[in-house]
Amino acid sequence: MAFSAAIVATLASSEQCSAHHRFRLKHVLHCFVGAERSPAVSFSSLFNCAVLQKMTEAELYSVYKGVHVPTHLHPPESLKYCEEFTFRPDDILIITYPKSGTTWMQEVVPLIVNEGDLTPVLTVPNWDRVPWLEEHRAILLNLEQRPSPRIFATHFHHHMMSESYFKTKPRVLYVMRNPKDVFTSSYHYYGMASYLVNPGTPDEFMEKFLDGKIMFGSWFDHVKSWISAEEKESILYIFYEEMITDLKGSVEKIAKFLGKSPSQDVTEKIADHCVFRNMKQNKMSNFSLVPEEYMDQKKSEFMRKGIAGDWNNLLTKAQEQRFNAVYKDKMKDVTFKFMWD
């Protein structure tokens, strides 16, 4: 409940929120505070996301360091907190472009660090277990007090990282996924999340995606920024597709990078739990705790399929050709080898 209440509070205080919307949101926030004292009050009766659905793109998004971010999840005070955050050398950062395997890694990495103990992933929501540093929740979690190694997530481009990051060089797990599948997953996600702009038709959303006019900007810029990072000795590059193909091998690869040597039994236990069909049942990771009015999983599940190549079920031949042409142009000078190539 605190997750949703914090979102409403952020929205209500946003300068981009109209006075009418602000009044309605503060009323919803008042209900949330009361509900935290009275568990009998349901989420559904409290969170009126019709407010979000009527907000314009300008009200929903702001531009930070050149990229679009959802204002209610990333208010100015949260972005400032992220900018001023002090890293430790043994911190672990899961870095992704959205819809590239973040949730998956938020499950895998804590299990490796905790030597296969399932307790954290079965009892703590993933947004608190491995918080996004740029999101509003981070301020509330006393992250400075967490014991090492701390595990965080971020969708930031390389140039958006804080001064402390570049000085400290914490360990980074950078996960990449075929951009056509990222586009496909994003299209369904935008259609079920009331805090994001409706995607429109696949053609309309594809143009926004290719132009980087969506949450966290251009996939091309994001990937190129991280594969060209100078601090490569502290970065492990891993593909969503290799996790699908060989999850056990991926667990071993990540563990080695983190200086861990789990036994075969522990490795197999982690891989078995993190198989998509099993992880999808974990209510601490599948976002089923979020109210339906905020994420309508009847429209599309947050954890949908967990496969490679689902873009074939969405893109027409003409759309595929358009996507390929833009990809070829934007990545023409990149020598990095991607699994999907």
From TrEMBL:
UniProt keyword terms in alphabetical order: Catecholamine metabolism, Cytoplasm, Transferase
GO molecular function: sulfotransferase activity
An example Gene Ontology biological process: xenobiotic metabolic process
Record-annotated Sulfotransferase domain positions: 89-334
Ion transport in keyword set: no
GO cellular component, one term: cytoplasm
Compartments, as annotated in UniProt: Cytoplasm
UniProt key word Cytoplasm: yes
Enzyme Commission code: 2.8.2.-
Membership in a protein family: Belongs to the sulfotransferase 1 family.
Protein name: Sulfotransferase
